[in-house]
Backbone:
């Protein structure tokens, strides 16, 4: 994947996250049931987006690292 | 032996260990300003991760978080939601700030902003606004430490003594060792509070209700309104989506603009350390889950604490845990308070001297460092006086502090990414945004859609910054080349 796509996707993920944890995107998910791993649905919903953020940023880092090595800069 | 004595011994041991780590850490640091403020730019991943995590999670998260879950239910989830959002942009912004810091020898946020927009008044304005936002924040941390110690020692160690001893220690290591001490004590405190929070958060629901799912099933049956988004307002009525959403937004924008967190970018050893800290930060955020579980475990528990902020010590004491566990919990809560308090005291002194005083009077490096140390003492003393006053309006002050801090975001973004921005644009924008936030903080009934005043401030700030910048002459190519290199 090229750098530009990776950055766009990372940005898009976090914008989607913002949309889905605030009004109005969060409305369908702001409910207590069903419980997920014992947690209320709305809480598990946010926790899932946070966990996703770790994965997305780690993947981005893999791509960024490859390009930093290729052009030899650290900026 | 009486329980409170055992608890006091454990707390004393914990405080002694913190002090030792703090004092040891400073021994390898150089004596100049870069040493004191930016730890000689030497922090590796372990220290950066905990410094960032432990500075973000303060007494507010450790005491206020369960308090919100207990009294306001789903409203508390806003605290969970904003961290990852606020940190992600730092993957790019962080290394950029760090590289400009290395090139131009910056150690504070205002130095970076005024490096691009040269103005002594702008620098002084940023220092002043930072200080206004910092004092209530430090006060809350001190009061939090005092409350916890008083509660778990059955009142034998009163608030004034508990906050004096714990912050006496913080001030000692911040004075002697600066950023290096803040870094290493936060690493120790961060590990401590994460372990304690997970242990208690998993233990209490099991001991009291037979499981986490079981606990929530009972809460849904008896208090369904509590878990329906966006939870409850302070008066027990349903909270508004406008307030919930803009609390997330303003906290996400403001999070890394807090000078004590922003300046951490200057302490990192290299850019990869910053990037990995950003990637791993959300894992620290998940530690709010057990913190909320502790609060929720109090909802159906008989009896109630004097105020919702006391729910955590209340649960610990009412469930007859062994004294050793109570002592360890207390140390965990102190960790949360002290690890934020030390970073705040350290940053406020650095900012006031470097960005305020130093701009108007030329000081030698040795004098600067001395002056910073005097200011740590002074800020600590002011906050201590406020902390003795049980006036709860300080909590409101802190919420509005985010409204001020979020106004630092447009100048930072403009400095780094918008070449057409001008000094006049940035100054008028900052003044307009802060004035707007202050106005709506004073007149909450006028806020559109119940929005957080900081967001209303940003809605005025950004257009003013852009408009005035475009109306004033662009900065010279020469200046831009020098700044961006």
Residues:
């Amino acid at each position: 994947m090229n750098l530009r796509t990776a950055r766009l996707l990372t940005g898009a993920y976090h914008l989607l996250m913002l949309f889905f944890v605030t009004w109005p995107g969060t409305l369908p998910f702001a409910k207590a049931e069903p419980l997920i791993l014992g947690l209320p649905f709305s809480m598990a919903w946010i926790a899932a987006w946070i966990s996703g953020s770790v994965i997305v940023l780690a993947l981005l880092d893999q791509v960024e690292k490859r390009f930093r090595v290729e052009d030899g800069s650290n900026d | 032996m009486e329980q409170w004595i055992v608890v006091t011994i454990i707390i004393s041991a914990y405080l002694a260990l913190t002090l030792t780590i703090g004092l040891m850490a400073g021994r390898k640091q150089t004596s100049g300003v870069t040493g004191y403020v930016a730890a000689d730019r030497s922090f590796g991943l372990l220290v950066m991760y905990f410094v960032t995590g432990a500075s973000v999670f303060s007494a507010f998260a450790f005491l206020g978080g369960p308090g919100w879950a207990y009294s306001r239910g789903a409203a508390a989830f806003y605290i969970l939601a904003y961290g990852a959002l606020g940190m992600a942009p730092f993957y790019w912004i962080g290394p950029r700030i760090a590289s400009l810091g290395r090139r131009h020898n910056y150690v504070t946020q205002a130095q970076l902003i005024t490096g691009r927009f040269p103005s002594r008044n702008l620098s002084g304005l940023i220092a002043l606004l930072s200080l206004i936002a910092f004092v209530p924040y430090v006060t809350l941390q001190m009061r939090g430490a005092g409350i916890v110690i008083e509660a778990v020692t059955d009142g034998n160690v009163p608030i004034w003594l508990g906050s004096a001893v714990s912050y006496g220690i913080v001030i000692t290591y911040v004075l002697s060792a600066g950023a290096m001490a803040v870094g290493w004590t936060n690493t120790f405190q961060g590990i401590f509070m994460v372990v304690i929070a997970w242990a208690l958060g998993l233990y209490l629901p099991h001991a009291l209700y037979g499981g986490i799912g079981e606990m929530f099933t009972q809460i849904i049956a008896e208090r369904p309104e509590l878990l329906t988004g966006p939870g409850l307002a302070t008066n027990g009525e349903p909270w508004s989506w406008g307030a919930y959403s803009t609390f997330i937004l303003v906290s996400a924008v403001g999070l890394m603009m807090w000078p004590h967190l922003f300046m951490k970018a200057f302490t990192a050893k290299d850019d990869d350390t910053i990037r990995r800290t950003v990637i791993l930060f959300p894992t620290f955020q998940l530690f709010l889950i057990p913190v909320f579980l502790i609060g929720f475990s109090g909802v159906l528990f008989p009896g109630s604490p004097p105020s919702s902020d006391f729910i955590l010590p209340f649960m610990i004491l009412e469930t007859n845990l062994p004294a050793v566990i109570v002592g360890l919990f207390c140390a965990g809560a102190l960790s949360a308070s002290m690890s934020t308090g030390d970073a705040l005291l350290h940053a406020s002194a650095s900012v006031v001297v470097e960005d305020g005083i130093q701009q108007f009077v030329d000081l030698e490096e040795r004098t600067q460092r001395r002056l910073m140390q005097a200011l740590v003492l002074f800020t600590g003393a002011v906050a201590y006086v406020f902390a003795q006053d049980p006036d709860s309006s300080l909590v409101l002050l802190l919420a509005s502090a985010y409204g001020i801090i979020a106004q630092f975001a447009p100048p930072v973004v403009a400095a780094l990414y918008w070449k057409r921005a001008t000094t006049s644009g940035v100054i008028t924008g900052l003044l307009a945004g802060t004035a707007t936030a202050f106005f709506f903080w004073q007149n909450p009934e006028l806020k559109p859609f119940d929005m957080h005043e900081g967001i209303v401030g940003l809605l005025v700030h950004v257009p003013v910054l852009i408009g005035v910048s475009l109306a004033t002459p662009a900065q010279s190519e020469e200046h831009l080349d020098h700044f961006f290199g």
Observations:
- Chain B has one domain: 3-393.
